[in-house]
Design a protein that fits this description.
It is a single chain. This protein has 67 residues and is an all-alpha fold. It has one domain. Helix content is 75%, strand content 0%. Helix 1 packs parallel to helix 3 and helix 2 crosses helix 3. It starts with 7 loop residues before the first helix and ends with a helix.
Length: 67
């Protein structure tokens, strides 16, 4: 049984708020990361979750280096 796809707008908005990053930037990063993961995936159930985690981690990591 596959997992329901998360609402992309909600995921993007959540990441943008958590990382203080413009939604346009997060949206593009999320779309690019999702495409990368889907290219090599055999099971797609958790791909959106993995993509969201990677984008969130990248933005948090980059914001830590700004301070």
């Amino acid at each position: 049984m596959s997992q329901p796809e998360p609402n992309v707008d909600e995921v993007v908005r959540s990441i943008a708020e958590e990382t203080d990053t413009p939604t346009e930037t997060v949206s593009q990063m999320y779309a690019d990361t999702l495409a990368d993961y889907r290219q090599d995936a055999r099971v797609f159930d958790y791909v959106p979750l993995f993509a969201a985690k990677k984008v969130r981690d990248q933005l948090r990591h980059s914001s830590n280096h700004k301070h």
